[in-house]
Amino acid sequence: MYRLCLSDEGNMSGPSVESGVPSVANVSSVGNDVIDGLVANVNEVNFSGYFVCSISLWHKRLTRTNVKNIEKKMQTKGMLKYDTKDFEKCETCVKSKFTKKPFPSVKRNMSLLELIHIDICELNGILTRGGKRYFIRFCDDSSRYLHVYLLRSKDEAFDAFKRYKVEVENQLERHIKILRSDRGGEYFNHEFDTFCEENGIKHERTSPYTLQKNSLAERKN
């Protein structure tokens, strides 16, 4: 008689009870007569008698199904009956049911250049005639006016910001107060931070995986 076991991943394995007989994992290397005998012996055995484990383990094997579905399989599939009280709370299921609260709409009453949204996007891998691969956007929160500059690489973002700052401050006779960006590495260099400090610009960086905080720039994608 052969004993079949299920691992945590649900794979069948395990050696035979009788000594000198090929295991289930190596049965493909023996003749057809042995295989036929093995199948006959296996069919005579109640599989549920060899799959003794906890209901929590069956919950993981059955793709995180709920306890009621496991109870139905106990009745229809010949599984052993388990006490549902022994079911341990599944950490994966708890995390998958976490929800985010909706971001409330914000009404801003700001003046020109008080808040600037900045974001970099790739041109879908297509180069322009000048060999530019990226573009950077500067969007004023008050007027929603948009400035776009083409870049060869992301490290040119700092130079593009200096060009934008000189242009808009000269035209509007105002100064940029707040710059809001995501947490991209192109905004974390020392020169960028030093430039903002010297010009009195507050650089706000959004939290990871929260595009809503910089939604005005993200929607332009």
UniProtKB/TrEMBL annotation:
Q: Which is one GO molecular function term here?
A: nucleic acid binding
Cite the InterPro entries for this sequence: Integrase_cat-core, Retrotran_Ty1/copia-like, RNaseH-like_sf, RNaseH_sf
The organism's superkingdom is given as Eukaryota
Note one Pfam family from the annotation. Answer: rve
Task: Outline the extent of the Integrase catalytic domain.
Answer: 100-221
User: Which GO terms fall under biological process for this protein?
Assistant: DNA integration
Q: What is this protein called?
A: Integrase catalytic domain-containing protein
Recorded source organism is Lactuca sativa
- Provide the organism lineage as a comma list: Eukaryota, Viridiplantae, Streptophyta, Embryophyta, Tracheophyta
